[in-house]
Amino acid sequence: MPKKYSLDAMEQTLRQASDTREGLLGRDARGLAAILQADDEAIRRRGLTHAHIAQHLLALRQAGWEGLGDPVSVPPHFEVRVDAARGTLPCPFGDQGSFAKVNTTVHNLASGQEITFTDLNIHLITTHGFYEGHGAQFRLDPEQLMDTLEMGKIRPCKKHDGMH
Ligand SMILES: [Zn+2]
Questions:
Q1: Nearest to residue 90, comparing CAs of 101, 103, 82, 75?
Q2: Neighbours of 39 (CB within 10 A)
Q3: Which domain holds residue 123?
Q4: What's the CA-to-centroid distance between 32 and ligand 1, angstroms?
């Protein structure tokens, strides 16, 4: 069972962290609860869950890892690049362990859209359903993320199964 966090305590921690370059709430004036709720709704509107998103990001990260530094092609039309820096980041919510400073950039060659996410982003989404606040350096806007990765917007259609 997931550990229960006090939203107020979490928010206070994040606001304090906002003074640093790793700030996760950015310039967002909304409370943490409102941020979490808005992003959760955006994901649900497309029939997805945070687990879906996290698994997809992890798979792309793993695919890109093979090319470490060089772009890797991922069907149908994505290019993934993984860049690793030294050091690790802790979970701001106090979970055990820390996360390598690995940036994964996914370029949608069909649409031209691009997103970058970190290993910490993947953890924050998996465990906390948190995409960071507006203006945070590694804010992952759920709509932009799902658009870029073409997730959840194409409804399953039995008549036209498969290729598109
Ligand atoms: Zn955590």
A1: 101
A2: 24
A3: 7-149
A4: 15
Q: Which of 1-10, 30-39, 55-64, 96-105 has the lowest mean pLDDT?
A: 1-10
Asked whether 46 and 151 are in contact (CB, 8 A), the reply is yes
Of the two residues 12 and 79, the one the predictor is more confident about is: 79
Taking only the tens place, the pLDDT of each residue in 93-138 is: 888 889 999 999 999 999 999 999 999 999 999 999 999 999 888 8
The yes-or-no verdict on residue 34 having pLDDT over 70 is yes
Could you list which residues have their CB under 5 Å from ion ligand 1?
91, 93, 95, 127
CA distance linking residue 24 with residue 106, whole number of Å = 21
Q: How far is the CA of 94 from the centre of ligand 1 (A)?
A: 6
Q: Name the domain count of the chain.
A: 1
CA of 121 from ligand 1 middle (Å) equals: 10
CA of 163 relative to ligand 1 center, distance in Å: 37
State the Rg of the chain over Cα: 16
Cis peptide before 92 (omega within 30 of 0): no
